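The following record pairs a protein chain with its ligand, guanosine-5'-triphosphate.
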Amino acid sequence: MENINWYPGHMKKTRELIKENLKLVDAVIEVLDARLPISSSNPVIDELVKDKKRIILLNKYDLSDSVITEKWIQVYRKKGITAIPMNSVSGDGLKQLVHILDELNEQINEKGKRIRPLRVMIVGIPNVGKSSLINRFAGKRSARIGNKPGVTRGKQWISIKGNIQLLDTPGILWPKFEDQQTALKLAFVGSIKDEILNIEDIAFKFVEFLQMNYPKLLKERYKLEDLKNTPLEIMDDVCMKRGFIRSGGKNDYERVSKTIMDEYRSGKIGKISIEKPESCI
Ligand SMILES: Nc1nc2c(ncn2[C@@H]2O[C@H](COP(=O)(O)OP(=O)(O)OP(=O)(O)O)[C@@H](O)[C@H]2O)c(=O)[nH]1
Ligand SMILES: [Mg+2]
């Protein structure tokens, strides 16, 4: 497989933007993808915000394997970190977040320091749902969202009732992935722009992952008879069943690859976590 790296200019700029605006905020919400809390945690962000009060959100909880996400929450708890499971589309988890922010607001008030609303910066890698969270919080579409990475391009302050201001920031990755397994997992969930990926390689690896970790869901979704087949044979089977055949009779691997990844990312295959606390792929 070719090496994956995606670090366009706007991410470099965002790094500066986060750094400059940190002075203005009381806390940082780091949005992670509940399906892969390790790989979606950005070491660059970690370094930038290490001295700020930080709240971790495990977003897209609804798409994750809830048993595994609960285990992750315990892992964070043992480290003294509050991690909140969140569904930014439905708003599940928002109550817990509001509660934590209210407490923070009170603490700051008590110290008599605050002469402005509580300001919180939202950070995270692309496509984890930062802008969706803000919209849900604000109760209206204030921030632009999209089902692909790199949607937010500049900073945007959004006021929330209850005297809170949230700062939306564009998602950032890091200049070079030390570990290509991390890049692959980020590609699975759609945090790396598909245009720079070989989607067929990604889907092949993803089918392989499903065969090993979620065979039942794979079998059910694509009505497979035999899971002993190779990933390529499974993709051939899906092409046949869905009629993904090019003129000339060859299987349309690009189409089947895009379909499988789209179906995973939108939750159609099932609730699937990529990283478990004990062992990662
Ligand atoms: N199922 C599910 N989908 C979500 C959730 N949160 C966000 N999404 C979807 O994920 C996609 C990305 O959401 P955005 O809010 O644009 O993500 P972002 O982190 O702001 O992305 P960038 O601006 O590109 O960094 C959209 O299609 C959202 O509808 C969630 O909790 N569950
Ligand atoms: Mg955004």
